[in-house]
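Recall that a protein's primary structure is simply its ordered list of amino acids. Everything else, from secondary elements to tertiary packing, is in principle encoded there. The following example makes that idea concrete.
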Amino acid sequence: MSEPPVYSPGGDWELPGPDGVPRAGSYGPVDGGGSSGAGFSYDEATLRELVREWNELANEFADDRLRATAMQRVEGPGIEYASAGNAEQIRTSGNALYETLTAREQYCRAMAAKLEAALGKYASAEDTAITETKQTGGSL
């Protein structure tokens, strides 16, 4: 069975070929044993990078949305019917583009928030492990 796609944070990536090497952040069973179904498993650095990348993508959608407002305000070059009709169609397209870009930005922000929540759980698990280790007399 071939390996699933592997995400490499911070870089330009493409799906690995048949010789792809799995790394942290790969898609697949969370427990590594294949019994729990599909899921994601990321280390802290990958989570931080993903939060940054989702927020950057959201910022790009927000910038594009600002540019789309120009389409929402377009006016025909002349006073004849064709100019007015064409301008109306462009405004309609601009409104649809604006709404779509807004939805995409919100999706990206929501993904970043989910990953930040996962980072919080990761940090909490680390703190718990450190506390438990210290209580048993161990050291890190």
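The radius of gyration is 23 Å. The mean pLDDT is 75.
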